[in-house]
Amino acid sequence: MMKTLFVALFLLIYFILSIPLLFIEFIIGKFNKQLKVRSSQKIVVTAFKVILAGCGVKKTVLGLENIPSDQPVLYVANHRSYFDILVGYTSVPTLTGFVAKKEMHKLPFISSWMKNLNCLFLDRDNIREGMKTILEGIELVKNGHSIFIAPEGTRNQEKEMLPFKEGSFKIAEKSGCPIIPVAMNNTDAIFEQHLPWIRKGHVIIEFGKPIYIKELQTEDKKHLAPYVQGIIKEMLEKNESLV
């Protein structure tokens, strides 16, 4: 209960502080848009780290050496918890925007920070609007900005992952950027397994080796979504014993 109250109080304080901070970021963006993205990411990552520490979350990060330092990537991850975003965002070493559901666009302050980070809001029910979002992601990658996406489309509480949506990989297919498979173990043990309370836990996030689509065999290119999902599944199973 105390951890849940801590998060609620911290978010309240953060929202209050967001008023002057967002104004400062707005001014920075008028002179240097890239600097605004970098400073906003540092602020958000710091806030996420405070939440994880306050909740007693121990995080083990594997495979950082697999992430190219000289080009943007498409991070592709499984999705089991609201805490996936905190664990993922405090682990990526590059400028990164997340693909979120369109409903997040309506949340005050949160959506403002997400826009500063070049996050994308995906309308799953409108193919035309969804394609526009994918095209925005392609442009971001071409401009040196990585994208983080969960192709299951929603949080999944079952043991097996939901099928990955093929459209999620268009950003990598059209931009030519490498795909980094991301496996997150035990994030749902922090919150989803015992709603509405937050409990401490040990989570593992592993970044797999980069996948270059042009180097894949023809059959794997045709079935890219299940191919990447299979790699993530192997990492999840391998890391179960480490939790």
Short structural description:
With 243 residues, the protein is of the alpha/beta class. It has helices at 2-31, 33-54, 83-89, 110-116, 127-142, 170-175, 218-222, 224-239; strands at 57-62, 74-77, 96-101, 120-122, 146-149, 179-185, 201-207. The protein is globular.
What does this structure look like?
- By secondary structure, the chain is α/β, with parallel strands linked by helices.
- The protein has helices at 2-31, 33-54, 83-89, 110-116, 127-142, 170-175, 218-222, 224-239; strands at residues 57-62, 74-77, 96-101, 120-122, 146-149, 179-185, 201-207.
- It has a 7-stranded mixed beta sheet, sandwiched between helices.
- Helix 4 links the parallel strand 3 and strand 4 (120-122).
- The model has no long low-confidence stretch (mean pLDDT 90).
Structure keywords:
243 residues, alpha/beta, seven-stranded mixed β-sheet, 8 helices, 7 strands, 45% helix, 15% strand
Quaternary structure classification: single chain
- Uncertain regions spanning at least 5 consecutive residues: none
- SSE sequence, one letter per element: HHEEHEHEHEHEEHH
Query: Strand order across the biggest sheet?
Result: 1-7-6-2-5-3-4
Number of strands: 7
Name the structural class: alpha/beta
Helix content: 40-55%
Overall 3D geometry? globular
pLDDT averaged residue by residue: 90
> Over all CA atoms, what is the radius of gyration?
18 Å
Cα end-to-end separation: 23 Å
Number of helices: 8
Largest sheet, in brief, is: 7 strands, mixed
Q: Strand share of the residues?
A: 15-25%
